[in-house]
Amino acid sequence: MFNWFKNKFSKKKENDENKIEEVIEESTKKVDEAEISEPIFQKKTESHEIKNEPTFEKKAETHEEVFKNETIKTVVPEKKEEPVVKEVVVEEKHVEPAQKIETHEEIKEEPKQEVVQEKYEEPKKELIHAAVKKELENTNDEEELKDTKESIFKRFMKGVNKTRKNFSYQINSVFTENDIDDDFYEELEEVMVMGDIGASTTMTIIDILKERIVDKGIHKTSEAKELLKEIILEVMNEHIEDNYLHLEPSPAILMLVGVNGVGKTTTCGKLAYQFKQEGKSVAIIAADTFRAAAIEQLEVWGERAGVKIISQKEGSDPAAVVFDGLDYSIKNNIDITIIDTAGRLHNKVNLMNELNKVKRIIDKKMPNATMEVILALDATTGQNALLQVKEFKEAAEITGVSLNKLDGTAKGGVIIPIQYEEKIPVKIVGVGESIYDLQPFEPELFVNAIFE
Ligand SMILES: Nc1nc2c(ncn2[C@@H]2O[C@H](COP(=O)(O)OP(=O)(O)O)[C@@H](O)[C@H]2O)c(=O)[nH]1
Ligand SMILES: [Mg+2]
């Protein structure tokens, strides 16, 4: 059985609450600057009151009520072909959500599990999270332990194969029987920067390496290889508490954010499938309402994974879809609700407004839900992925990264600065297009793999 979760989030919740306040403050400031007449987050006291109310008791509300008394101005996206979300002025009086095309009766239908089970077998043993290593270490069955460890490693290697081949080839050309000199450090620096570790993190690592080489009295470059491996792992873990998805206790919400094409929808499908295999009840909210294709794509994944997709028609307000989706999750006692969001919001204020709107719906409907906000990134974009982390961190409280398409690139080294410079844990990696091609991320395995 998988173990993607760890029960450590009481501390995380506290931190999150501080971060939310910061995001709200920052967002209000930005919106003010954009000359919007009323601040978005004027009703702070209300949200505190709501938090004291018991979860799941608020009924007969619409998503618009969440924003009543507020003027929300959504900046119109630059691209002409995208549907325009106009200025929304929410009236005080009760208004039904405009785009409710699914009734609750329809939503209540159980997913067609029989079909799914015929098509999909139990996940293979090698999909087991490296986190079970610890549990397995308590077993006396040596053979079982060895097999499992080997298969975890093999599976992971498939995903990092290109990064590994590239990096290990280059690195091995630096670690020879030569003496350590300035050329060695220069070559090493070049290999690391080329390997997408980034200039700043590379310098930090090399500085530590220099010190340690002196401390240990090492003279041959070959002897420094193990040291480098050790330091890379230390640097990766320096600001990271752990790399697990924290989705317990239920109910939990996992929201996927990120720009277009980075694999958000695919990751939703893969995660939904894996969570179901762990015995969790799962639903997906299709909050990317800007492309009809995105909703259809998610329906296909929903069928594969055997989970309910809550959607509305193209162009609906994402906040309204999330509102109805959370209603479904509450009524059906869903353990993990996955929210797929749109990635076309390049304007920062706009992005912040949209994400905050969704966040406030969540705070209102499920104030005590365990939250993960996962930023999906395309590993093939290398350093650009790092820039996206910086951007999205300003717009939302990102709790982790899903680094997708790792199978198709040698740029996996970018994981190191994501964790060290941006202090965001890489929690999952996408290693292919099938439902099984998602791996929990384990720094130790990664470092061992790229040095193989
Ligand atoms: N090779 C590979 N392709 C992926 C992976 N994740 C997503 N893709 C592909 O990337 C494309 C965009 O994915 P999609 O989920 O639609 O991205 P979104 O726009 O962020 O929702 C699709 O063709 C996916 O099949 C991955 O881990 N590996
Ligand atoms: Mg999508």
Query: Whole-number average pLDDT?
Result: 75
Hetero groups in this structure are: guanosine-5'-diphosphate, magnesium ion
CATH topology of one domain: Rossmann fold
CATH class bucket of one domain: Alpha Beta
- The H-level CATH homologous superfamily of one domain, spelled out, is P-loop containing nucleotide triphosphate hydrolases
* SSE-based structural type: alpha/beta
Identify the overall geometry: elongated
Oligomeric state of shown chains: single chain
List the uncertain runs. 1-21, 23-58, 71-135
Order of helices and strands: HHHEEHHHHHHHEHEHEHEHEHEHEEH
- Strand content range: 5-15%
Number of strands: 10
Q: Would you kindly provide a written description of the structure presented here, covering whatever features stand out?
A:
The structure is a single chain. The chain has 452 residues and is of the alpha/beta class. Among the domains are: 175-238, SRP54, nucleotide-binding domain (Four Helix Bundle (Hemerythrin (Met), subunit A), Up-down Bundle); 243-450, Rossmann fold. It is built from 17 helices and ten strands. It has helices at 9-33, 44-52, 63-66, 104-108, 113-119, 132-137, 142-174, 182-194, 199-216, 225-237, 264-277, 292-305, 318-331, 348-365, 383-395, 415-420, 443-450; strands spanning 71-72, 88-89, 252-257, 282-287, 308-310, 336-341, 370-378, 400-404, 426-430, 438-440. The strands form two sheets. It has an eight-stranded mixed β-sheet with strand order 5-4-6-3-7-8-9-10, with helices on both faces. Strands 1-2 form a two-stranded antiparallel sheet. The radius of gyration is 23 Å and the shape is elongated. The structure holds guanosine-5'-diphosphate and magnesium ion. Guanosine-5'-diphosphate is lined by residues 258, 260-266, 343, 376, 404-405, 407-408, 430-433, 437.
